[in-house]
Structure formats: structure tokens, C-alpha cells
Specification:
about 475 residues; Kinase-like_dom_sf; 15 strands; alpha+beta; nucleotide-binding
Length: about 475
């Protein structure tokens, strides 16, 4: 969930905040009038639920990509350079993919948000015109009508749901992948964020996850080095878990207890959890996307370090790994803490991070290539029948381990782009090595956090002492 201010819309004759009578003895009833033009939520279509309708939109993406590729081929025959034609095809593909995914919400929007985290891997000439579009996927999506919101609240909190609130803002403050967030005042006076799941999200999500898998070829040209198929398989399992907000409530409560009173991190306290409605204390703050776009070097470096520290410390402190690393889930609070939102995707690690991760990284850093190879094979990263050259494997992995190899490391878009291009170019050795590697199911969320975290840090252009964080939080790590 997110806590940005509500989006502007056009004039309505009603207020955007619902007065909630009976919200506790003596509780004030607040009605906040809308100032300025806005459009009613009813003008925005409901979440498209029909499989045929959603499938048609998603199917249009690879078909359109194929059409653009054909046109591009013709332009190359007419004498235009391959580079200029490819850049134009990539640009138009990015524009359509993110537009359609954002409109569909559900699993499609979730995948789009995952891609937006990795925009640092895309060529600058592609992302520069569309960075705003990518960021929108992290922060927003079209809202559902207020009457639908009220129906979901009644189904989950009871017909007298109004009595739970002093006031409730009908205008959504932000969007989540399968729901949207509203600001309200709980009956005890606390400001709260109310996350409400889109009706029909279950069917839409399952349809999206089946259909988005067909986008592999179109997306492969946009995100060098990422196996879209493997990412979709992992998203499939995790997203189905996210349909039940009670699981998210349990995870958020675990984090909130573990980080209560922490001077560096803010985890909103859980207020109430139902299957399709989640109520948490409201968290004010500056979105991480704003820090990426406008923060000073000092601000970006500090936030980058806190970001890494939260991800690494979660398994030890809470027995949980926050596994949804995109910027829309992070805020810098007014008192300078890193606020963390949305606990729908977590890896439950009651014993902490597997020590094998630290041991494998340590073996690689000291150049013990044979033991590194055998360790990866034992953990399932290399299947028994696959033959891999230890030297080639080391050269493939070494750049990704640089943050743990030096006292300080500087993440940036150029570095990330080079790494993803290096392992995606068939003319380079890393390409064939990458085809031989596997991600075991037990490591899928860890892998997602690793890749997504690198993407966010590269967007932040963050520099910091990350090796010290490895030593502090990663079991089994005893690198140089």
C-alpha cells in the first residue's frame, strides 16, 4: 500500500470524505469538502474481470510487438540504421506495455511494477522519455467507484462498517496491484490507511497470470538478462497468496512487533485484518520515487543504506523477508526514518537467511572457484547433468558480487545496464553461462529481492558501505 496524497480529479457535487456516525461515544464526525474540480470515481471503469476482455488486452501486446518488429524490419531494408530502428521499436513497445498493464491492474499491473523496478537496466534512450510512465506504475492506477468500495467494506467489516470509523475518505489515496488505499480515521481516533481489494481480483489475477506469460518475447527486448518466464512462475505463486489480506496482516504484524520503536525504520501498526480489507496506521512520508528523482546525493546514499539494511535484517529480526522491493512500498518519514509498506509478498524464514547464501558468496569472493561451483550445484543452482566451466562461472558472477567485495560500492544505471547486457548478449561468454543456471524454488523470493534491490539501488544512484551490511546480517558470510 502507499500513502501519497489523493490524485486530483474533476467537480463532484458530493464530498470525498464519508461522515461516519456512531464511531464511538463523543467521537467527532468530520466531513471534508472537495475543493476544486474533480471527476467522480464512477467515470473510471471497474476492474476488468472477464477473462476474454482481459486476455484480449494482454494478447494485443505481443501481437503489437510483432507488428512493430515487422515495420522495423522494413525500415531497416529502406536504409535506416539497426540502432535507430531498434530504439524506436523498444520505445513504442515500452509505452504500450506499461499503459495496458497499468489499466488492467491485478497480476498484469504487478508484473508491470516489477518491470518498473528494473528500468535501470533499460537503455537510457528508451527509459528517459518513459521514466514518468514507469514511476506511475509504482504509485498509481485508475480507482474503482466509491459504491464498490462501500460494498467491499460491508462484506468484510459488516453492514455497520461506518461505526468502525470517525470518517472515511472515498477518494483513494493510492493504488496497490490488486486493490487501492483510502485514508480514514479509526473509531479510536487514529489516522489509518484502509487497503481494499478489487472485487473480482481473484479471477482477474488468475487470468492475468496465465495471459502475461505470453509476453516473454515482447518483454525480453525491454529487460536484458531477465528470464521473464521464471519471474512469472514465481509471481504466480506469490500473487495467489496475496489475495488473502489476512496473510498480509499476519506478516505486517510480525514486522511491526520486530521493529517497534526502531530509530531507523517505521512499520505501520496493524489495526484490523479481514480477507479483502486491511487497516493499518497511516504513515506520512516522501515516496522513494521522489527521492530517486530529486534527492541530493547525501539523501540518496542514506536511503540506499537503510533500504539494504531493512531487507537484510528482516529475516534475523522478524523471521521474514520483505519480498516486494519496488519504490512504491517505501517512504522517508518526516523524522528521517525509512517507512516500509505492503507486506503481501514475504518469504517466511523463521531460521533467518539460509547460511548457504553467505558461504557461497564468501567462496566466490576469495576466488575458490571449484568449491563455489560445487556449492552452487549442492543448492540446486546447477542441475546434476549440467557441465559448467568454473572460470567462466566465476567471471559471470563476480560483477554481481562487487557490492560485497569492496568497503564501499556505487550502484548506478550504467553499472546495472552493463551487467544485464553482459549476460544477455549471445556474443559474450556470460550468455551461455546464464543459460545453464537455475533458481531453486527455495531461493525464488531471495532472488527476486536481490535483483529488484539492485534495480532500486541503481535508480537511487546510491553509494555506501554495503559489505559491512553483509557481514552484519548475512549468516555464513566471512568475506574480505
Amino acid at each position: 500500500m502507499a500513502t501519497t496524497s489523493p490524485r486530483s480529479t474533476a467537480p463532484s457535487t458530493s464530498s470525498s470524505r464519508t461522515a461516519c456516525p456512531g464511531a464511538g461515544a463523543g467521537a467527532p464526525t468530520r466531513i471534508v469538502s472537495v475543493v476544486g474540480p474533480r471527476r467522480h470515481n464512477d467515470d473510471v471503469s471497474d476492474l476488468p474481470r472477464k477473462a476474454v476482455s482481459r486476455a484480449a488486452k494482454l494478447a494485443s501486446l505481443p501481437l503489437s510487438a510483432a507488428g512493430r518488429a515487422t515495420v522495423g524490419f522494413g525500415r531497416r531494408l529502406s536504409g535506416q540504421s539497426a540502432e535507430s530502428v531498434t530504439a524506436d521499436v523498444q520505445r513504442r513497445t515500452a509505452e504500450q506495455v506499461f499503459k495496458v498493464l497499468g489499466e488492467l491492474k491485478g497480476g498484469a499491473m504487478k508484473f508491470g511494477q516489477t518491470l518498473s523496478v528494473l528500468e535501470a537496466a533499460l537503455p537510457e534512450e528508451v527509459t528517459e522519455p518513459y521514466r514518468e510512465t514507469l514511476t506511475k506504475l509504482q504509485e498509481s492506477a485508475p480507482p474503482m467507484p466509491s459504491r464498490t468500495v462501500h460494498r467491499v467494506l460491508a462484506e468484510n467489516l459488516g453492514q455497520q462498517w461506518h461505526s468502525s470509523f470517525v470518517s472515511f475518505d472515498d477518494e483513494p489515496a493510492a493504488a496497490a496491484s490488486i486493490g487501492q488505499v483510502h485514508r480514514a480515521v479509526w473509531h479510536d481516533g487514529r489516522d489509518v490507511a484502509v487497503k481494499i481489494q478489487y472485487p473480482g481480483a481473484d479471477a482477474a489475477l488468475r487470468s492475468d497470470l496465465n495471459q502475461v506469460s505470453r509476453l516473454g518475447k515482447a518483454l525480453g527486448s525491454m529487460v536484458p538478462g531477465i528470464d521473464a518466464g521464471a519471474m512469472l512462475d514465481e509471481l504466480h505463486d506469490r500473487m495467489l497468496e496475496e489475495l488473502d489480506y489476512r496473510l498480509e496482516a499476519d506478516a505486517q504484524d510480525g514486522f511491526a512487533i520486530a521493529y517497534e520503536g526502531d530509530p531507523e525504520f517505521a512499520v505501520p501498526a496493524l489495526v484490523h485484518g479481514a480477507k479483502h480489507v486491511l487497516v493499518s496506521e497511516w504513515l506520512d512520508g516522501t515516496p522513494l520515487s521522489e527521492v530517486i528523482a530529486h534527492g541530493s546525493k547525501e539523501e540518496r546514499d542514506r536511503v540506499g543504506l537503510l533500504y539494504v539494511r531493512f531487507l537484510f535484517s528482516g529475516p534475523e529480526r522478524a523471521g521474514l523477508l520483505h519480498a516486494d522491493p519496488h519504490p512504491g512500498n517505501y517512504r522517508v518519514t518526516p523524522d528521517g526514518r525509512l517507512g516500509v509498506l505492503d507486506y503481501g509478498a514475504v518469504a517466511r524464514l523463521p531460521e533467518g537467511l539460509p547460511p548457504s547464501i553467505g558461504r557461497l558468496i564468501s567462496k566466490a569472493l576469495v576466488g575458490d572457484k571449484e568449491e563455489m561451483l560445487e556449492g552452487l550445484r549442492e543448492e540446486g543452482f546447477i542441475r546434476p547433468h549440467i557441465t559448467v566451466d568454473p572460470e567462466g562461472l566465476y567471471e559471470y558472477l563476480a560483477p554481481f558480487l562487487e557490492p560485497a567485495a569492496t568497503e564501499r560500492f556505487h550502484f548506478n544505471r550504467e553499472w546495472m545496464r552493463e551487467q544485464f547486457n553482459r549476460i544477455n548478449d549471445p556474443r559474450r561468454p556470460g550468455y551461455s553461462i546464464g543459460l545453464k543456471l537455475n533458481v531453486p524454488p527455495a531461493y525464488l523470493l531471495v532472488h527476486r529481492v536481490w535483483i529488484g534491490g539492485i534495480g532500486v539501488l541503481s535508480q537511487l544512484d546510491a553509494e555506501g558501505p554495503y559489505r559491512a551490511e553483509f557481514k552484519r546480517w548475512v549468516p555464513g558470510f566471512d568475506g574480505p
